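hey so i finally got around to running the thing on that chain from the lab meeting. sorry it took forever, my laptop kept dying and i had to restart like 3 times. anyway pasting the input first so we r on the same page abt which one it is
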Amino acid sequence: MFNKWRRFRLAAMALIAACAVVLGMTAPASAGIQGFPGEEGQYHPVTYSGGQIHSRSVEGEARDDRGNILHVWRGGDNDNIWISLSNGPAYPLPATAGSPDHAQTWAAPTVIWTDDGYRGNFRIFHTGTDGHIYQHRIQLTTAYQLPATLPYATQIPNNARTNTPQPVAAAALPGNSYMLAWNSQTNNDIWTMFYDGTTTTFQSPQVVPNAQSVKAPALAAQVTDGKDSGPWNQVVLAFTGLDEHVYMARQQYGTSTWTNPKWTEAWTRNSPSVALSGSGYGVITLTGYDFYVDSLLIKRNGEVSGLYDDATLFQWTDNSPLAVISGNSVYYVRNGGVSSGLWWKFVTDFGSWATPPAPQW
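ok and heres what got predicted. didnt touch it at all, straight out
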């Protein structure tokens, strides 16, 4: 069965490439390496205490420094934003202070964990149905449980807004800081904004030079053990260009200067996902034109190499899977559709890989 599916995919890719030649288009990249070292051959259901999570979008997921996991998702039969701590009960997030309504979104929510030197903060970001970007900041109790009263949404300042069906990207940074990235609501620009956890202030939004897209970007920071900035101090922005190839731009943390976006061989109609490990490696995940899951390998010297096929191959999705890092372990979460639910699997342990090349800027 496995070889049969691989032959089917290769034949499909050949057909797409032939059509592209006839139509005068650039052909999508060919099938790549079959899976990462140690990658699982099957997915498992993402669960909470009530069973498998069902959503209209891909979920958001983050871990704190004690291993607590916060799952955040858009409802399977509504637009409410739901959360579950460490696979426990699901709760909807409230909208605004004093409002009986629940926070709603038409896009996948995003969650990160930032270290404040105490219990830290889970920060949930979502695009409101008005296009503005909102945040819910959740600090666990001293017993490391969800607070009895969940926080309502606060609007991100500086008129940060995007298209309502598009998510906002976020990356945790040292000192309780973080960075946001989103696609412009009025043109093809990609904006980023830095939040300084020390001064508790936002810097002015900045356009990423030469980064043009009609899709939502993805953002990640190279970290060690999930909280401290690694010696390479790297922030990576991945996005789908106007030519529908995936691009990557990098920033050395603290410089506020982006490298010129680098073209990659990966081709997608959707937004990618990106995750970086403390070892210096990272991944960009996407769905190819055949709706199968593909990945690019990131090295800390700025190289993007290889095109890796999902080891299961025949597990397809029309949305890019969420790439999640826990320590140096990589996991993928994909949406099999509302009726199928959310699914996860282990991909690889970058901690067992050879030391990557040194950073280059």
